[in-house]
């Protein structure tokens, strides 16, 4: 096993990025992940190499960025990302782990990309979803809540909140109702 990097023996796509989101190290699984002919991702921005995004964290296209959160929180973070390859959806868990130096500084974050499409049952074609209540029809033909479906397939638990867009809409709707009731 001379000249074999241990990181290249892993099937999980792994990169190490710096504070500017530049890839400084990438294993073979990452290099082959989206574009097998592009095997030189070192030096590229992680968001560009991983998802072909022109802009990174904080932009609507990039969504949630666990790498940015890891640099700030000094903790392992994760997010679920989805994208399309040709005509099929891919759902991926991105986990980021900060590398803390002896002096406490964080210069790098390790990113691990795990394709969870099969785990979620999304590789089986179309998943039936109620257009009204958003329940999912499982393999037994039963209609179950979306959260229950994902919990059953991933073990994930959910915490509910309101995104900024819905918050504005709900706030406006509540203010109108309050004005009408006076």
Describe, in plain words, how this protein is organized in 3D.
The chain is an alpha+beta fold and 182 residues long. The protein folds into two domains: 1-123, 2-Layer Sandwich (Beta-Lactamase); 126-182, no CATH class. The protein is 25% helix and 26% strand. It has a five-stranded antiparallel β-sheet. Strands 6-7-8 form a three-stranded antiparallel β-sheet. Strand 4 (88-100) and strand 5 form a beta hairpin. The protein is globular and about 65 Å long. The chain starts with 12 loop residues before the first strand and ends with a helix.
Shape: globular
Radius of gyration: 20 Å
Instruction: Specify the CATH class of the largest domain.
Output: Alpha Beta
- Give the SSE order as H and E letters: EEHHHEEEEEEHH
Task: From the structure above, extract its key features.
Beta-Lactamase, 182 residues, alpha+beta
């Amino acid at each position: 096993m001379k000249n074999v990097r241990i990181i290249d023996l892993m099937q999980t796509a792994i990169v190490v990025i710096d504070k500017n989101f530049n890839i400084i190290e990438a294993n073979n699984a990452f290099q082959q992940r989206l574009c097998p002919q592009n095997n030189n991702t070192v030096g590229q921005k992680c968001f560009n190499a991983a998802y072909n995004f022109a802009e990174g964290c904080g932009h609507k296209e990039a969504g949630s960025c666990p790498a940015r959160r890891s640099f700030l929180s000094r903790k392992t973070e994760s997010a679920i990302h989805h994208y399309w390859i040709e005509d099929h959806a891919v759902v991926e868990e991105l986990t980021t782990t900060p590398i803390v130096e002896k002096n406490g500084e964080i210069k790098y974050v390790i990113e691990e990309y795990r394709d969870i499409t099969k785990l979620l049952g999304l590789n089986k074609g179309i998943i039936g979803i109620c257009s009204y209540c958003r329940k999912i029809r499982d393999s037994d033909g039963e209609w179950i809540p979306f959260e229950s479906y994902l919990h059953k397939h991933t073990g994930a638990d959910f915490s509910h909140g309101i995104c900024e867009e819905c918050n504005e809409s709900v706030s406006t709707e509540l203010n109108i109702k309050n004005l009408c009731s006076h």
